[in-house]
Amino acid sequence: MAIKPNGKSPVTSDHDDKIMLFRDVTPGPHETQLRFRLIHFWEAWNPLKKTLIGIEMLLIDEQGSVIQGFLSPSRIERHLSKMKPGSLYKLNNFYGSSNKTMYRVSDHAVTVSFSWNSELSVLEDSPTPFDEDRFRFHSFEEFQAGCDRKGDLYDVLGHMKLVNGQCITGTPVLDEVEIARARHVLVHVQSYDGPVVKLYLWDQAARDFCKKFKSYERTPTVLLVTTVNTKSLGGTLALTTMSSSRVFMECDVQPTVDYFSWLGSNPQSAELVNAEVVTKRETLTIGEIFSYIRDGSNKEAFFECTATIDDVVHGSTWYYISCSGCHTKATKGPTSLMCSKCGKVNISGVPQYRAQISVYDNSEQAVFVLLGDAGFELTGKHAAELVSSYFESNGDQGVTQEAPFPEALISTIGQKHNFCVKVTQHNLDGKSRSLTVTKILPMESPPVTEASGGNYNPTTLEDGFETGTKVCGASKISVDSAEGSKNNGDIDQMGKAKRLKRGV
């Protein structure tokens, strides 16, 4: 067997062609042969310019290694007609490009790009077996840890609880006309005994879901969706499909077969629906939210609540100094600020909202704590901007003191807003009755949906994906640091709130 000058050792075929394994693919041009199964391919579009970037592929070699492939628009006509998912191919000559850093679908650092002299042909009568597929599953905790980070795209496997709001045990009816109009299907899915998560299947994935769902005589329960992206929608973790996503059910692939077997041995997991589906954000009054807490629920949840701002809570601090990297509350060291989460010293401190406001509706009064982006959404100004403006106006005076409540917050008194509030473990444990605000929604807002196209380039997804849904990443990260204090925003502080007269 011939040894390459760089030390790599491709195997040889009967025709003495040099064959390279995926593990040996490196950046740069290669005049050698790859043999693989074409698992899947899809179009990659620029969502802003509406232009085709190319064809992306997922390939697997004889050793089960997976790599991403790419076909530029100028070479599509030459090669696309030969490509069929599931078929075996050999590719002579290619270029190894560095894999993208965002929204990757394989672990390999290199992408196989078709070059000017690439030759693709069907691999006939291969004596070597090739795996049919390869999956990369994540648990709820792993998805949550990677939320909004635009990292690798992983696969989700679980059993369905709700399909477009219909209980899976009640034979859901799919309205394909409505689904075509909305361009998505919303499925509440649970992986084993973990939390229930919202899964949005868009465009082609939604069509594939409907086709498979209706093909079963009985209602299917097991669902596997590949390469999903994690987003924070209204403070709630949600999974959304990409143009690379594929849909499997029940007996389609071995992982769904195994999961179906597990579900048969654990029927209690399939039966629990209403008690587990707490990711669905409902609209409640303040009184109903407090009833949810008093009723002994042990689950954190997000709700929408329409309330009027009555006052700011005087005597409380409306901001905190955070680590500029992770937004955790900074601590004072001997000579500088430190971050206990990052473990760094001498960090740059950035003011973040933690403003307590007194609110009311027709049922009850409460103290809401505005965190991160929620404060910006209310005032239109970042906390850092307001703090900086105060100290610039006052010069060196009051450098050692905190900036008082700004007019931007005080001027919101009397305004009615639709708040997204989080019932935290501190609320459930009775340690605090103040409710954390993660987002402020428009008063006449339609249900939150994703403005994702059916075909787009994952590398530019963030440019077109968040339309209509501003992700409150800073507020989500800041919740842990803000909730660490038992007394921040406690309902007892409502006694401290003094009415401010407009214009005084």
UniProtKB/TrEMBL annotation:
Span of domain Replication factor A C-terminal: 302-443
Keywords: DNA-binding, Metal-binding, Zinc, Zinc-finger
Similarity remark: Belongs to the replication factor A protein 1 family.
Top-level taxonomic group: Eukaryota
Full protein name: Replication factor A C-terminal domain-containing protein
A Pfam family per the record: Rep_fac-A_C
Source organism: Brassica napus
InterPro entries xref list: Euk_RPA1_DBD_C, NA-bd_OB-fold, Rep_factor-A_C
Chain residue ranges for the region called Disordered: 480-504
